[in-house]
Amino acid sequence: MAIRWTYAFIDRPAALLGPARDFWTAVTDTRPSPPRGEKGEFATLLPGGGADPCVKVQGMDSGDGGAHLDFAVDDVPEFTDGALRLGARIVAEHEGWAVLRSPAGLPFCAVPWLGESVRPPVVRGSRLDQVCLDVPPSRYDAEVAFWGGLLTGWSSRPGSLPEFHVVAPPPGLPVRVLLQRLGTERPASAHLDLACADIETTRAEHERLGAVRVVRGAHWTVLRDPAGGTYCLTGRDPETGGLPGPA
Asked: Which pTM does this prediction carry?
């Protein structure tokens, strides 16, 4: 079940797909692909310089949106069967790809690998490199076990705080997974995280592009994009995704 590539999918209400696409292409220094899907609801954010894409956007017919992961693999049925054995369920099967949900109900997709191999560069001191899975306490341990079992060959380890667990890919894959144990019982959800060399500099740029600050923490800042989706700027090394080393 080797994972060849990873995508962070930005899910936003269909009526706000345009503002979401424009904002995230500016943030990631990419250009949008031609729209795909029956309603033009999908687009890939294409980097320059010979790099391969690792971010996509989707317009949702219902709900406020969020984020999800796509895993590009050699054998979609094999990956899907492995996920089912670990407790996932199938939402939809399409020709060549499948939509699944984790035990806590978080969506993810298995898609065919198309040869992607070159990670996009850091953009002005930041990189969109993580999907954070926000999981209620009653489902957290099972969800940690599921992702650690599904993502074979990845490093599954406790995070810097007790409520976090990191599932980091081998070098070269562009998107990693962070699980966060919520403080209250509510449905699981997911959001995007950017690793930032300087959170304040990145925040100012994002606000110039239309984002709004929601809350500021010690080592992270929550913003809301022009389509209403929340995401985090985190104080991590944009090259490695890890926490900065001691001064």
From this structure: 0.96
